[in-house]
Amino acid sequence: MNEPDTTSQSIVIEKELPYPPEKIWRALTESSLLKEWLLDNDFAPEVGRRFNFRTTPMPQWNGVVDCEVLSAEPQRRLSYTWNPFEGLNTTVAWTLTPTKTGTLLRMEHSGFRPDQQGARKGATYGWKQFLSGLEKTLAGLE
């Protein structure tokens, strides 16, 4: 995985995976599969759909990430807002590009302000863990 650019206000991770876009799309958009590698959710890939990801609450955080689907182009692009707490209004975008051996998966989490470097640092760590889980989920899919 490429390391994120520390000068930008985004987190970008790109990885070539040995799976076709259709398989990765399933893991990004099927609620039960998202739960395996990301978080519990009520997601559906429908533009305008409001949903949330849920996890165990922690001190000063209720464990809920409020989201809304911004784009859903099957097997190509998916994006949604990612707002885990007041004042953090960011966007997560997934791009799938077919390659000779699988798919180049690009994840960009954008919208961090300069005063939100702590949140950006925490999100960078979190996405690395989540994407490791995504690879395990993909390996187990038929």
Description:
The chain has a single domain (11-140), classed as START domain (Alpha-D-Glucose-1,6-Bisphosphate, Chain A, domain 4). It is built from three helices and seven strands; from the N terminus they run βααββββββα. A hairpin with an 8-residue loop joins β2 and β3 (50-54). Helix content is 28%, strand content 33%. α1 packs across α2 (31-37) and α2 crosses α3. The protein has 142 residues and is α+β, with helices and mostly antiparallel strands. The protein has helices at 21-29, 31-37, 117-140; strands at 11-17, 40-41, 50-54, 64-73, 77-82, 90-98, 103-110.
Summarize the structure.
The chain has 142 residues and is of the alpha+beta class. The chain is 28% helix and 33% strand. It has helices spanning 21-29, 31-37, 117-140; strands spanning 11-17, 40-41, 50-54, 64-73, 77-82, 90-98, 103-110.
Secondary structure layout:
Elements: E1 11-17, H1 21-29, H2 31-37, E2 40-41, E3 50-54, E4 64-73, E5 77-82, E6 90-98, E7 103-110, H3 117-140
Antiparallel strand pairs: 1-7, 2-3, 3-4, 4-5, 5-6, 6-7
Helix pairs in contact: 1-2, 2-3
